[in-house]
Amino acid sequence: MGEELPLVGAASSGDALEVKRLLEAGASVTARDHHGRTALHWACQEGYYEVTEMLLRAGANVNAPENEGFTPLLIAAGGGHTQLMELLINNGADVNAHTCWKGTSLQITCAWGRIEAARVLLAAGAEIDARDSEGYSALLLAVMYGHADVARELIAHGADTGVRDNEGSTALDWAVRQGDDDLVRILSGSI
């Protein structure tokens, strides 16, 4: 990665001075590695705010998908990098972009239990009931992975508690199946 694509290498290691030097020397912000990732993808994965700012100022595509459809925002969301997410959103990132299997940033943050990241996305207008290729919504994923605080937040923002995955299961079905009494209470309306 480093020799072929020095800007990608510098961004992935958070070397802001080298990124600046390479950009001044004319390095392309659109260059991609074998995963289809640009320097911006790598900076967002690692949480490098300063490098991300520099790449955006240099014209990096904030909505560029890599080979599996992950945009820089989807990657930052997965890492729970809320300040980076806000920076990307303020620079035009699509909060409803999705991966090749239709997973959104909100779904990713909810599966990982990253409540602050979910709040950033909800405030930016993320589609709360979007479903991935398995039929999972953000709420279903939060429940499946046992994140009661995230489920509570989604319900407070109007998430559809009756949405069913491709197998016909609701969030309540998942909570009962997993024996999660807290989530069962939340989803039954007795918070």
What would you note in describing this structure?
The chain is mainly alpha-helical. It is 51% helix and 0% strand. The protein has 12 helices and no strands. The chain is elongated, with a radius of gyration of 18 Å. It starts with 5 loop residues before the first helix and ends with a helix. The model has no long low-confidence stretch (mean pLDDT 94).
Round the mean pLDDT to the nearest integer and report it: 94
Helix-strand topology string: HHHHHHHHHHHH
Largest sheet: none
Count of DSSP-assigned helices: 12
Poorly predicted ranges: none
Task: State the total count of DSSP E strands.
Answer: 0
The outline comes out as elongated
Distance between the termini: 50 Å
What is the helical fraction, as a range of percent? 40-55%
Structural category is mainly alpha
- What does the radius of gyration come to? 18 Å
Q: Tell me the β content.
A: under 5%
